[in-house]
Amino acid sequence: MAVSVFYKIFIGLFLLVACSQSKEKTAKDYLNAAQQAYEEGNYDLAKTQIDSIKIKFPKAFKEIKAGFALMQDVRLAENQRNIAFCDSMLQVNYDTLKVMLLKFDYVRDEEYQEFGDYIPKIYPLSQTLYQNTVRSGVQEKGNLYLESVVVGQNIHHNQIKISLPEGEYAETLPVTSEGLNYRFSTLTTSYEIVRYSGDNENGVAKFVYTFKDRPLTVYFIGKRTVSKRMTNKEKEGIAQSYELSSLLLEIEHLKLEKEKSEVLIRYLLSKKGE
Fold this sequence. Notes:
51% helix, elongated
């Protein structure tokens, strides 16, 4: 009986030691897996393995400390890769932009504008003050705007809707801001010009871009509503503006992401030097 009790105690102690060793080994396994993932460029997996050490083995201080050091290397490499990706994509986008800008005139009032606008050559400003129309432009940083022009009619419009024959449509939000909604008269006629940008544009340009090969009708909405069938030049000008805006905004996004990575790399390198 004494032998049996001694045997059980021995087995219990053996299992306890084995579990303890297994626990220590498992923490090291996570660290080794993180190191391997880092070397293979799988940074998301490396970070997951490092985080698991802290969660599963809160007393594995040696591995946690080593994991923290490895995490700095992972973040550094991750951001270096991000910069390389941004540089590559920026070069591709700049090449595309160079070709795309051939379709636009650059217009800037040096006295009042810090940045200029890109106006589609297919529908220049000189053609937009003779009839009711919708024209478009893209600011230098990529923000698209639409402008509705009503000639010779005082309808006090501040909104437009563009629709397909089947009834599907997109419409701007009403514009009430001073400077975006203005009217003036010459000796011969009157004009109403309303600009829609940001939230007020409300996806109308994308709608035109999507359905530019279909018949589209624009409604100028005010105290009363007038409408007209959009011309091919109007639709193509808006479609080109939408494409240019998307490209410029993507370039600005890549530049911002690159800058964020550069700032973080400087921070990580400064921590390494401490």
